[in-house]
Specification:
With 197 residues, the chain is mainly α. The protein has 8 helices and no strands. The longest helix is centred in the N-terminal third of the chain and has 33 residues. 24% of the residues are buried.
């Protein structure tokens, strides 16, 4: 039980770091002092350091269990993991065709002034967050261990919160343009009847 609480607390620390350092006021303060490249370096370094405690709890040495103990493999779950991972990679690739990963990750060293609403963004406002969730779900399917389940569910919770916080910043940044876009594209899941702007 304590191990799982520690995982959740570690993911929460990462979430606070990630959302805190990408908050508009903090981001502008860092950029004013160290520039956009400095912001990117600080964002990457602190994100990496904040994620270490949670990731150490995942027992990487057991990650090839399906080679050592194939009798433990649930074929249906394993196949689901393959499909979820493939779908997540496909969503990430399609999203990256419209906008850079650094921009969506909130480093924004190359943010264009225009709101991106083409490609996959015409259907979902946060496709890279969706890709992250699909990847985390694939982890659960590949590795049905309690520590992986706890880590993945905690991280999915943060991804949803992070997407919501991102929405608030985008409304501030783009105003009515973003509010109109929000009516045409889904939050995380693609909206089928959305139109391409």
């Amino acid at each position: 039980m304590l191990e799982h609480l520690a995982i959740i607390a570690s993911v929460a620390v990462f979430g606070i770091q990630h959302s805190g350092i990408s908050a508009l006021r903090v981001k502008h303060w860092i950029i004013d002092r160290w520039g956009k490249e400095g912001y990117s370096r600080i964002f990457n370094a602190t994100s990496f350091l904040a994620l270490i405690p949670a990731s150490l709890s995942l027992n990487y040495w057991d990650w090839l269990y399906f080679l050592q103990w194939p009798e433990l493999v649930n074929p249906l779950l394993f196949l689901s993991g393959v499909l979820l991972l493939a779908l997540g990679i496909m969503v990430a690739i399609l999203a990256s065709r419209s906008i850079s990963v650094s921009t969506v990750a909130d480093m924004r060293t190359d943010r264009k002034p225009a709101l991106v609403t083409g490609g996959l963004y015409a259907r979902t406002r946060h496709p890279l967050y969706l890709a992250t969730i699909l990847f985390l779900l694939s982890l659960i399917a590949f590795y049905p261990f309690s520590n992986i389940l706890t880590f993945s569910l905690a991280f999915i919770g943060y991804v949803i919160i992070g997407a919501y916080l991102e929405e608030r910043k985008l409304v501030i940044q783009y105003g009515d343009e973003y509010l109109a876009y929000r009516r045409t594209a889904g939050f995380l899941l693609p909206r089928r009847n959305s139109r391409k702007d």
